[in-house]
Amino acid sequence: MTICPIADEAVAWQTWQSVTAYLQALGEALDREPSALSDEGRAWLEQARDRATAMNPLAERVSKLRGGPESESVQDIP
Predict the structure, then answer these.
(1) Angle in degrees, 0-180, between the axes of helices 39-55 and 5-32, rounded to the nearest 10
(2) pLDDT digits (tens, 9 = 90+) for 19-59
(3) pTM for this predicted structure
């Protein structure tokens, strides 16, 4: 049971920021290396970036505040 959904969203947003920063730093480190990224590595990085994008709670909250469709997985703020 969630006591404060907005706090949960804030924590999710902080986690998303950390994951996004990590993936950006990883991409920059790979860019500095002279060897090419393998196809498997490229696929992993692309999938990780897609998952990170899906972690961002802002898009869903903005949609809700503008009257858009609501996900069943996120509770309303009373």
Answers:
(1) 160
(2) 999 999 999 999 888 788 899 999 999 999 999 999 999 98
(3) 0.74
- CA–CA separation, 46 and 3 (whole Å): 35
Task: Put residue 70 in one of left, alpha, beta given phi > 0 → left and psi -120 to 50 → alpha.
Answer: beta
Distances (CA, A) of 69 to 6, 12, 29, 54: 18, 20, 39, 16
Query: For 38, phi and psi rounded to 5 degrees?
Result: -70, 160
* 9 touches 77 (CB < 8 A): no
Contact indicator for 12, 55 with CB cutoff of 8 Å: yes
What count of other Cβ atoms lies within 10 Å of the Cβ of residue 52? 19
